[in-house]
Amino acid sequence: MKNWLHLSAEGLAAPSDEWPCLLWRAAGDCERMRLAEAAQRLAGQPVDLLLPMEMCSFLRTEPWPSKRRPDAQAIAFAIEEQLGEDLEGVHVCAGRRDRQGRYPVLVTHKARFRALLHLLAALGIQVRSVKVDANLLLDDSTDAVDWLDRRVVGGNLHVALSPQGLKAIEPLLVEPLQWLGDTDSRMLIEAALWSGHGQSIDLLQGEFGRARRAWPWVTLALAATLLFMVDWGFKRVRIQTLEGQAQQLYAQSLQRFQALYPQQTRVVDLSAQLDALQRQGATASTTALAHLVWLTEQVIGGGDVDVQRIDFQAGDGWKVQLTTSSFNELERLRERGQQSGIPVRIGNASKNGNRVQAVLMWEQSL
């Protein structure tokens, strides 16, 4: 029997055995309960854990130059600039290569993920795999699924937002979203859980991978002896091969460095010079889209507001053309911004019929 345990986003603030969750025992058999109750219901049965997208970030690498799958460290270095965080503190998990030659990647904080696994183990919950809800949805999907009181989108977005937040960013998307109702959302979710999760990324890999059964001592000793003999016999060949590859890689790196930074005519220490240049040109880790989501959730999403147009210009920030019910509502938008630490300004306000038109501005340079 396959069991799914879906943790809600609201429990992320204070993880405990009171964490609200969904327990799926089969298609059509789903119950809301607390984590402690789910542990009692499972009674030691293995479970497939489903995390909320709010606990992870989703990225894609650039098209990979080699057909051979890179290791986790290579993928981590490839997305480091997009991620904007210290790689030592995050857990990076890659999926299968797509048709464009890119690798989809899920990233979560190591300490937070480790604490979650310890909590589940303490409750006696045996985790068989760990997936993310938005990552279960089809790669080419533009469906906005109603899931645990928020809208979840997979595909190229991989986001989970309130309906108001998702409505606000929809004008920025290349393709319009398909807003599914309760029945269609339930059907799509169950199809993803019971038949469509083969391409999804399992977070139980790398240092969090499932432990394998230990080999018997005799088998282990024979295997170690064989490996030592093979290593000793081909040691020289391997060293020569690695030296040749290292020289080739350094030459390629030097060529690319000189193409990116032609003003660096003298290269003494390639790694140190590259690090210095990257530190000089480092940008803020939050993206324009993340700023817009924050603005929407903290300011716009809480009022009686219709968004007409959203513009962004580097150095000037966001400008949101909107209509609302009154000038008082505009003042409430400005006050919510101040309370949330978002210094918004209201401009070009005018009365048009029974609605007030205005421009909300947030001068946030990236």
From TrEMBL:
Report the Pfam families cross-referenced here.
GspL_C (PF12693), T2SSL (PF05134)
Organism classification: Bacteria, Pseudomonadati, Pseudomonadota, Gammaproteobacteria, Pseudomonadales
* UniProt keyword terms in alphabetical order: Cell inner membrane, Cell membrane, Membrane, Protein transport, Transmembrane, Transmembrane helix, Transport
Name its GO BP terms in alphabetical order: protein secretion by the type II secretion system
Q: What NCBIfam families does the database record attribute to this sequence?
A: typeII_sec_gspL
The record gives the membrane topology as: Single-pass membrane protein
Keyword Transmembrane helix included in the entry's annotation: yes
Protein species of origin: Pseudomonas cremoris
Every GspL periplasmic domain range = 216-361
Q: What is this protein called?
A: Type II secretion system protein L
Q: What does this protein do?
A: Inner membrane component of the type II secretion system required for the energy-dependent secretion of extracellular factors such as proteases and toxins from the periplasm.
Give the GspL cytoplasmic actin-ATPase-like domain ranges.
39-137
The subcellular localization recorded is:
Cell inner membrane
Q: Which GO terms describe its cellular component?
A: Gram-negative-bacterium-type cell wall; plasma membrane; type II protein secretion system complex
Q: Which family does it belong to?
A: Belongs to the GSP L family.
